[in-house]
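Supplementary Text 2. Reproducibility record for the structural model of the 366-residue chain.

All settings were left at their defaults, and a single model was retained for analysis rather than an ensemble. We include the record here because the model underlies the residue-level annotations in Supplementary Table 4.
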Amino acid sequence: MRLSASAALLLCATLASAPACAQTDSPLTAKLSAAFGPADAAKVSASADALLRRPISTLNPVQDALDCFGAAALARTLGAPATARVAADADALIALSDPAHTGKAGWSLPIADTAKNCDGPGTAITFETECNQAGTIFMFETGLALTCLGKTYDLTHKPEYLAAAQKAVDASWTAGGASPDCPNCFAYWYSLNAADVGRYVRNTNVLMGMGLAALYADTHDPRYAARLTQIANAERAEMAAHNFGYYGIADLRQRRDPGRERRWIDNHVPYVAKGLYEIGVAIGDPVAQDEAAKLMDVWMTCRGVDCGNSCAQWGADPARCMVTQTAAPCFFTKRSDIFKAACQAYLDKAVKLNGYQIWAVVGGLE
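Retained model, structure tokens:
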């Protein structure tokens, strides 16, 4: 029986057999081994194999998008098999667009999801009072899907991916606006539900920016660049106000209790950090990139009552947590040894990695 490269690497790492490892090195495992050592490289490589073999989700756009990101990070070294997986996830996302058939392209919770049920499957309560009907287009899911489609078009140059993304961008283009205190900013609303107008949630806004950043790299559309600058301005205003919380400074909940909300640091922060970094790269804004790294550091080093009291709320400490976001410092491995050490600590504890975690670890080495 012939072992796959990742399985052979795992075996040689376990046996501490350097010659065997040398024989099974691939560009991916060599890069990972140089950064994190052969044992951790083996975990990532085995997880990469598993990702490329795993069935495509046909119901959950977040799962499709995160698997797409992991495969896109692998495509630089694994080539065609990883690119094929990226395209398959993007195809699934296109099939899931406009789930309620309203004519507005975008992505929602899975139609059959009962986790946040308020009026039947696929519905969700937001802001503690509002019931979003099944098929409501949410900016969180839409931003992730747009990013996948942008990455897929970059790898394949197939026009259907760009067309699907642009349709969703146009459907949501006016679903937001400047905040009262920041006229040169733009914030996407939480969803296309009219009841969510005027609610400022940072991760949804920045994830829409991450999607636009991927599309801007493909199109160089000046309209996208202008919107990216406005989103970066919005995050600059949040940082200037020392807000590290989930809600933006103009949100109703922030205004009710700004002292508490600005200190509440949870697992949404890594999405803001990664999205802001991608925006900064896209428009050549080093300040946005620095602020993104600062956000990640604040999340990573949070202590005490300002962090969530469970791993599901705050999972940065690999000594006690192993959730999806525990891998988030790996996004910034190349920026400083602090992030690299945190990534190493995560990998030393990890058993296997999901799409998000592969995206963080492999993408962070680029």
